[in-house]
Amino acid sequence: MKTIVHVVGARPNYMKIAPLIEALKHVNGFRQVLVNTGQHYDDAMSRAFVRDLGLPAPDHDLGVGSASHAVQTARVMMEFEKVCLGDRPNLVVVVGDVNSTMAASIVAAKLLIPVAHVEAGLRSGDRTMPEEINRIVTDRISDVLLTPSADANQNLLAEGVPDDKIHLVGNIMIDSVLRHLPLATLDRVRDRIAVEDGGYGVLTLHRPSNVDERRVFQRILDAIGAIAERLPVVFPVHPRTRQRMHEFGFDKAWPARVLLTEPLGYIDFLSLTSHARIILTDSGGLQEESTALGIQCLTLRENTERPITVTEGTNQIVGTDPEVILAGFERAMSPAATPRRPDLWDGRTAGRIATVLRNVLSNR
Ligand code: UD1
After folding, report:
1. Report field, pTM of the whole predicted structure over 0.85
2. N or C: less crowded end of the chain, CB within 10 Å?
3. What's the pLDDT at 137?
4. Secondary structure letter of residue 112 according to DSSP
5. Using alpha carbons only, what angle is made at residue 33 by residues 35 and 45, rounded to the nearest 5 degrees?
6. Is the shortest distance between the CB of 294 and ligand 1 below 6 Å?
7. Which helix H or strand E contains 33, and what residues bound it?
């Protein structure tokens, strides 16, 4: 029996691990162990997702909580090392690009435990983003690089990663989207959020570069205010953003047609996004989800590590200048091109990853 340890820690991890754990249940010869680092800990940021996605209760809860990048990363490393020494996994699976991803991969690599990275090869080229550092480090020390799209393979090859470590498997987040879409109806959220099908926008905002600086946050607020004159906007507020709004005195600065809510669970949020007219976001995952759903998306950043959502999907990179955002909004309201769902974003990525992992482990 071989042991696979899966690591999750922050909200965008859960929907990437859940389909893989499910797929590996059908492969004989594996014991699966789930580790939750506790990088996110609020019910709405963590447990609500575990419940919605049907994830098993974690075998280890590391409880690291919030801290500076160095402290948070170090805490994950210290606690995860104990797990690895106890469980002696044959493989550690990490997903995405959060601090927990990088921390766990460093620990495993130093204990000579092979690391598989799901969502490998994405690059924004912007090292001011903490996630970009996490991506580069994790990919550099991973043994199995599972990529969502061909551009990610190109990035890894250009960095000198050997071809035989790279496996183009598709986008596992879309497995979760397609699986839960039948449950995602507006009736689920109507008691809290009164919106008409196709008649509203959804906003998410949490990047430090957007919300930690008052001037930038103000520009985004101005743009959203102008958009809300045309279309009501639902805004589930991330805890970091909530804190900054409070500090900057922005709590009451939003027009009435911007509906502020607490962070939502996975299926409630999918209900909102899948029926929206437009999504405005600085998230990485939401760029992909909107492309998979065929919903227009404006990305409030200067760059993206997911260019395929622009070239093939519904995404526009508009930054934080209100004029550019509003021009993007006009284009999104009457889109010129018909988007397509990228290859292998088909809901079957977890099965492909399970096959790769089975082959890798049987060869060791
Ligand atoms: C983290 C990830 C980011 C991801 C995002 C999704 C890193 C470097 N960043 O950013 O890639 O897109 O999660 O949400 O890993 N807080 C709470 N409750 C929680 C979690 C956080 O109140 O459950 C507050 C804390 O004050 C914390 C702040 O939010 O200091 C930021 O949390 P943190 O995990 O440091 O970064 P995120 O901005 O959430």
Report:
1. yes
2. N
3. 98
4. T
5. 35
6. no
7. strand 30-36
- Are the C-beta atoms of 146 and 353 separated by less than 8 Å? yes
pLDDT-flagged residues of the chain (< 50): none
Residue 215 and residue 58 in contact, taking contact as beta carbons nearer than 8 Å: no
Ligand 1 atom closest to the Cα of residue 130 is 8
Alpha carbons 210 and 181: distance in angstroms, whole number: 30
Alpha helices in the chain (DSSP H): 11-25, 48-52, 69-87, 99-110, 130-141, 150-158, 172-180, 208-211, 214-228, 239-248, 266-274, 285-293, 308-311, 322-333, 349-362
Tell me, in angstroms, the distance from the centre of ligand 1 to residue 239's CA. 8
Q: If DSSP states are collapsed to H, E and C, what string results for 265-307?
A: CHHHHHHHHHCCCEEEECCCHHHHHHHHHCCEEEECCCCCCCC
Would you give the DSSP letter of residue 143?
Answer: S
Name residue, tokens 């983003």.
Answer: 129
Query: Which residues, other chains included, contact 121 with Cβ-Cβ below 8 Å and sequence gap of 6+?
Result: 139, 145, 147, 148, 151, 152, 153, 154, 155, 156, 166
List Cα–Cα distances, 56 to 9, 201, 354, in angstroms: 14, 33, 18
Ligand 1 pocket, residue 12 CB under 6 Å: yes
Between 285-293 and 172-180, two packed helices, what is the crossing angle to 10 degrees? 50
Contact 211, 320 (CB under 8 A): no
Q: Measured from the CA of 69, which atom of ligand 1 is nearest? A: 8
Give the integer Cα–Cα distance in Å for 320 and 220: 6
State which amino acid sits at residue 295.
Answer: I
In angstroms, what is the span from residue 40 Cα to ligand 1's centroid? 6
Query: What percent of the chain stands above pLDDT 90?
Result: 97
At 81-125, the pLDDT tens digits run 999 999 999 999 999 999 999 999 999 999 999 999 999 999 999
Amino acid identity, residue 130? P
Distance CA 210, CA 241 (A): 9
